[in-house]
Amino acid sequence: MSKLDYCFSNDYMVLRPDRASPFDLLHLLFSPKVGRNKAVDCFTSTEIRSFPRRLALFLNLLLQILLLSLAGPVAAIGAAVELALNFVDNVLHGKMEYPDRSSASYRSLTGLIDRRVDLDRSIAPADSRHHAALCVMASKVAYENEAFIRDVVTRRWQMEFVKFYNCWNEFESAYTAQAFVFCDKAGPDAELVVVAFRGTPAFDAARWRADLDPSWYKVPRLGRAHAAYTHALGAQRNMGWPKWVEHIKGKPQKVYAYYTIRDAVKGLLEASPKARLLVTGHGSGGALAVLFATVMAYHREKAVMDRLAGVYTFGQPQVGDAMLAMFAERNLDRPKKRHFRFTYAGDPLPRLPGVGSPAHFLHFGLCLHFDVSYNLKVTKI
Fold this sequence. Notes:
It is a single chain. By secondary structure, this protein is of the alpha/beta class. The protein has a domain at 119-380: Alpha/Beta hydrolase fold, catalytic domain (Rossmann fold, 3-Layer(aba) Sandwich), CATH 3.40.50.1820. It contains eleven helices and twelve strands. The strands form two sheets. An eight-stranded mixed beta sheet has the order 3-4-5-8-9-10-11-12, with helices on both faces. Strand 3 (160-169) and strand 4 form a beta hairpin. Helix 1 crosses helix 2, helix 7 (227-233) packs across helix 9 and helix 9 (284-298) packs across helix 11. The mean pLDDT is 92.
């Protein structure tokens, strides 16, 4: 990446662990002139005079460098562990067969630890808890492979599976965002269209690094947004968030999350006059979910936003500053609350990225917090 890639932003700070030398790290620790540091992309005139802030960035860069170096080994170990656990699971269920990673019976570590996939049938569609109950299971199932998700949606939930999306990140030249879309009923009878984003997989150290990364962009009219989630959702080099983009020419399999899923949702809503939209995700998937809805509001997608029933996130990290928070609340929570952020006890995910000043990252929306005894406390932030 070059600084031209950020020209859509009128202010930015992007950490670069991929090119941080020992000298750059020491320079960051002892010099306030971070704009001249190769480990940080920002305006040349940028200075950070606070030593605690520079120390926090120094430690964060060290951790990111470590995670990048471990990404390959951790992924290989994780793949072997999941394969072995699935083989044991097959044996315990009387199937002496080698696990197929793409089959409907293959589970991620998350799915093996918590095997629940069925919806709570005691919560009827007319129940005020129905949207949250459906979204929490969709967020959980999003960690699995496409065949598993399709089987759960169609066979267990008796709903209409639409499509699984594996989406391209132009800044990292990798597939870093996954999501699936389904409807509660087929065709024009659908009353709900649901978009569920996948969170960070258990053995994906590269995505752990992205969750910890405090880099940000300031987007005109929107505010400061978390850089890694902005990249994953489909922001464009040099352009940021244009309302329309072309799919990658000659490479139809490479699609951008926001643009592809937005267009799919618009088509489904047009075909189903009664349908309303739910967007959900756990962890980084929750961050993508709330940014997805926020960018639709930024693009003034009024026809879609008028039919947004809710954004339900679970263990969602912080995604932006006070300006972005005000923009999101103005568009998601008016005329009524539509952004619901669920947190649990001491879960560390909502505290991420955890570096920088409150001017850069904070939470917004209605928080529904459960303690270890599952007692509910509702707070504004």
